[in-house]
Design a protein that fits this description.
Blueprint (H helix, E strand, L loop, with lengths): L8 H4 L15 E2 H8 L11 E2 L1 E3 L9 E5 L11 H6 L4 E4 L1 H10 L6 E3 L4 H12 L10 E6 L4 H14 L4 E4 L3 E3 L5 E2 L7 H13 L4 E5 L2 H5 L8 E6 L7 H4 L2 H9 L7 E7 L3 H9 L4 E5 L8 E9 L2 E7 L5 E6 L4 H16 L4 H11 L11 E5 L2 E5 L4 H11 L8 E5 L9 H12 L2 E4 L9 H19 L4 E4 L3 H11 L5 E5 L6 E4 L2 E4 L2 H11 L13
Parallel strand pairs: 3-4, 4-5, 5-6, 7-11, 7-12, 8-11, 12-13, 13-14, 14-15, 19-23, 20-21, 20-23, 21-22
Antiparallel strand pairs: 1-2, 8-9, 9-10, 15-16, 16-17, 18-19, 24-25
Helix pairs in contact: 5-7, 6-12, 14-15, 15-16, 17-18
């Protein structure tokens, strides 16, 4: 899922996928908005009624406050006339935006000017939508951050809460669920105006809880400002998004912001890596620690594991002799970690331990299939689609699907994304060469970068690993991506395993600004069917 966006919404003219706000909003006088901003509102306009807030002129509705932010190429003030035409009753902008409005023509609505309006968007959205007001039914919020595992963990949380007979919502990479028809996601975390609108909508529809993926982009671009999570969870931290954060220290510091008193009431932190241990030791909110690899002391640790089918039965040992017996049907030790984190986050929210265990026993909530996350397409050969798009995730995915039979081969198809952290490309190639028998390097989402150059970077890492490690993997470069998937299937025998990695649930491939229809799951099914192999149709996917 692309997070390649600029901090200004109208500057990129991104189209929102749905109406992210409640049906009924109690009007807030513009004078109250001005007071919150420390800006005087002229008396004739003080009683103007604000019933919504938007950063995008295309999503403005009558009664909205339109926030005009600077963007990479255009300023949101350039679209103020569109917003006013759609019913905006006031504009909030910065000095540059105010100058643009003054130059264009008379603006028929009040213009409020502050130094950095981006800082005000989250708190104003909370105020206008009353997303977490004390009145009415509270909505418990679960926020999951980390490099890998966010999506699966939020799906696990949602599935477990449903097993506890709670009505739940979801905000994440794949889709948004707010008690109605699923809405495909454009960003891992929507803009703060939409997040607060969604939370208010969930409350309006009587939902009990919601799980949300919180990306580092969301924190950096202030998309979760003004939101207080009941429980924040941390999965892990590995190299990714250094195109935005420059260093791992900066990346970690951004993630750590979620675990502060203004953003979370309590935390559950996986301490299997150095970053988790640092986070657990520095957070200023009550924290529960989790270790799943047995190497670290923690509040909850892995007491026993046993394989069952593709998945795992495991037991967590906790304080004062407490235990939790858990099963996940998804393959891989990382899904054990995701399931353990989900269970402890729900426990930390106040659910009774006995009730939690009863739900785990009766409903098997962690066998839910997550779209594009270790999604099994066929069994002979085993064919799996996964979102693994960085070094750590790719290594874990390859290890998870490695067939145990000595005469079986592991075939992997993957690429690297354009205009992203280039340093991980050769590392991904090297990992594939070390862990797979046949490595097919192809295109991911090149964006505006030359696809051949990206493939070359990945191939270089794979070749170096093969040359230096006396490895026997077969290395191929096949493109475009659909041909690479079909080629992988043409090589496969019933006892082999095919992993198509990097894009997961995504259905579009961006090449030079053009979105091309491409779904790895569809291509893999078609290729398998053409070869006469049977494919699965999974009805366990939550939606």
């Amino acid at each position: 899922m692309s997070e390649f966006t600029t901090p200004g919404s109208d500057a990129g003219r991104d189209e929102s996928p749905g109406r992210f706000r409640p049906a009924a909003v109690a009007a807030v006088p513009l004078a109250a908005v001005g007071q919150a901003l420390g800006v005087a509102v002229p008396e004739p306009a003080a009683d103007a009624e604000i019933t919504g807030i938007s950063l995008n002129s295309r999503t403005v509705e009558p009664g909205d406050l339109y926030v005009a932010l600077p963007g990479a190429t255009r300023h949101g003030a350039d679209f103020a006339s569109d917003a006013i035409g759609a019913g905006a009753v006031a504009v909030l902008t910065d000095d540059a935006g105010a100058r643009l409005l003054a130059l264009s023509a008379d603006t028929p609505v009040p213009v409020l000017v502050v130094g950095n309006p981006r800082n005000e968007v989250g708190p104003l959205s909370a105020m206008i939508y009353r997303s977490q007001a004390d009145d009415g039914q509270p909505l418990r919020l679960f926020g999951v951050t980390g490099t890998n595992g966010k999506t699966t963990t939020t799906y696990f949380i949602t599935s477990l809460l449903r097993a506890l007979r709670q009505k739940t919502g979801l905000i994440g990479t794949i889709e948004i669920l707010a008690g109605g028809k699923p809405i495909p996601s454009l960003l891992t975390t929507p803009e703060s105006t939409e997040v607060h609108g969604l939370v208010a909508l969930m409350r309006e529809r009587g939902l009990d809880a919601a799980a949300m993926e919180v990306s580092s982009h969301a924190i950096s671009y202030q998309r979760v400002d003004g939101l207080l999570f009941d429980v924040a969870g941390f999965t892990n931290l590995t190299q990714d998004h250094l195109d935005l954060h420059n260093t791992m220290e900066e990346y970690f510091a951004t993630k750590a912001e979620l675990f502060t008193p203004g953003r979370a009431r309590r935390a559950v932190v996986t301490v299997d890596d150095e970053w988790g241990r640092r986070l657990a030791g520095s957070t200023r909110v009550p924290v529960t620690t989790l270790s799943t690899d047995g190497s670290n002391q923690a509040d909850w640790t892995m007491a026993a594991t046993a394989p069952r089918g593709l998945g795992t039965d495991f037991t967590l040992a906790g304080p004062a002799g407490a235990t939790l017996k858990i099963h996940t049907g998804l393959p891989g030790s990382f899904n054990v970690a995701n399931a353990a984190l989900a269970a402890l986050m729900v426990l930390a929210s106040g659910v009774d331990l006995a009730d939690l265990q009863a739900a785990l026993d009766s409903a098997d909530p962690f066998t839910v299939a997550v779209p594009g996350r270790m999604q099994l397409i066929a069994e002979q050969p085993a064919a799996v689609v996964d979102f693994a798009h960085n070094t750590d995730a790719l290594a874990r995915a390859l290890e998870a699907v490695r067939p145990p039979q000595p005469d079986s081969r592991l075939i992997v198809v993957f690429g690297a994304t354009g205009q992203r952290d280039q340093g991980k490309r050769p590392a991904m190639g090297a990992i594939a060469a070390r862990l797979a028998d046949t490595v097919i390097i192809t295109d991911d989402d090149p964006h505006d970068e030359d696809a051949a150059a990206i493939r070359s970077d990945v191939m270089a890492g794979a070749r170096e690993a093969l040359d230096s490690g006396s490895l026997g993997a077969e290395l191929l470069e096949v493109f475009p991506r659909d041909e690479a998937i079909h080629h992988a299937v043409s090589l496969a025998r019933p006892q082999d395993t095919i992993l198509v990695a990097g894009r997961g649930h995504e259905v579009w491939q961006e090449v030079k600004g053009v979105n091309l229809a491409l779904d790895d799951r569809v291509e893999l099914r078609n290729a398998l069917t053409a070869r006469g192999f049977n494919v699965l149709h999974d009805d366990r996917i939550e939606s």
